[in-house]
User: Which sequence fits this backbone?
């Protein structure tokens, strides 16, 4: 991938500085639009990866220095896949997505505008997608993002009206609440949707929010400590409005943390062929691969086990298949004491 001009040099000089994460690159149907292109991104090096902690700040809309429009607008067809890359540094050097301690939910918002150079703050924002915490797989959205090399995708609704939009991916890190406020990482892509509905955009008022203003410091969604040692009261309920589902569209959530070049499903409902289960071999203290059927398809969406017939070996989500049928790499997925499935991935006796 291309790198921001000069950023690699500067990043190398300040490599010891703390980096958090930044929305760096946009992809349309798996094709990179170029680092920074069509993005309202900041080139202020000492701030570009910093979190937003003031919830009433205009930076909440499109990120730090996000009030400044980008010179480009990227076209996308209604129904196509739009992917966002988050990096530890905008230059990609050193590599990384976001620190693994930054546990929390993610969401993607959109706002139709007359012109993408408009002020992004204020009302008109609606939610296209969200992912909080999966109790079955014990996984936060940010863990899925890291496992997918910093890529998160959404399918633009097929009936989304033609026009110009600001599309806003969001990370909410909840790991440091004992020491400070919740941390937001966001940015905006300037997009023009083509081939969609010719009707005006009509979003119910209960799905529309103002940014900043859609979430308050007192809201439970920003006061849920995700630190591994914190006492948690699940389920975690994401903040903001509910996801708006466009009438007549059949978008799929399966692509969110799927392969960048993976196809967009024609329906949100996928069918699978159940695979036979081979005999398991005894696990050792190191990962055991002996009982895995190497002929199984590798999981493309993080699911595994007999129901779907997928293995976790070599998947982007991790090599271990949990008792709940999700791929991962932590003890919650890999330990035989919590039901790791050796037929569908690596397991450890720990």
Assistant:
């Amino acid at each position: 991938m291309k790198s921001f001009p000069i950023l690699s040099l500067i990043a190398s000089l300040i490599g010891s500085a703390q980096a958090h994460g930044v929305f760096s690159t946009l992809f349309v149907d798996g094709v990179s639009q170029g680092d920074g292109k069509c993005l309202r991104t900041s080139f202020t090096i000492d701030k570009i990866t910093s979190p937003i902690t003031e919830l009433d700040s205009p930076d909440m809309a499109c990120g730090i220095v996000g009030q400044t429009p980008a010179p480009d607008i990227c076209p996308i067809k209604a129904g196509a896949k739009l992917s966002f890359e988050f990096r530890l540094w905008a230059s990609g050097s050193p590599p990384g997505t976001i620190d693994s301690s930054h546990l929390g939910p993610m969401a993607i918002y959109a706002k139709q505008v007359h012109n993408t150079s408009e002020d992004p703050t204020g009302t008109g924002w609606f939610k296209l997608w969200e992912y909080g915490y999966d109790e079955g797989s014990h996984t936060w959205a940010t863990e899925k993002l890291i496992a997918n090399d910093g890529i998160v995708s959404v399918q633009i609704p097929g009936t989304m009206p033609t026009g110009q939009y600001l599309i806003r991916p969001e990370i909410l890190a909840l790991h440091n609440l004992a020491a400070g406020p919740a941390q937001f990482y966001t940015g905006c892509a300037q997009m023009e949707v083509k081939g969609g509905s010719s009707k005006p955009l009509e979003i119910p008022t209960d799905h529309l929010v103002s940014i900043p203003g859609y979430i308050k410091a007192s809201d439970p969604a920003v006061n849920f400590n995700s630190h591994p040692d914190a006492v948690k009261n699940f389920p975690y309920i994401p903040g903001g409005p509910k996801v708006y589902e466009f009438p007549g569209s059949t978008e799929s959530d399966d692509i969110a943390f799927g392969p960048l070049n993976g196809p967009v499903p024609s329906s949100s409902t996928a069918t699978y062929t159940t695979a036979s289960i081979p005999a398991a071999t005894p696990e050792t203290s190191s990962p055991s691969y002996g009982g895995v059927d190497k002929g199984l398809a590798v999981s493309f969406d993080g699911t595994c086990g007999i129901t779907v017939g997928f293995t976790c070996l070599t998947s982007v989500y991790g090599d271990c298949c949990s008792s709940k049928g999700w791929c991962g790499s932590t003890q919650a997925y890999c330990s035989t004491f919590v039901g790791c499935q050796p037929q569908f991935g690596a397991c450890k006796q720990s």
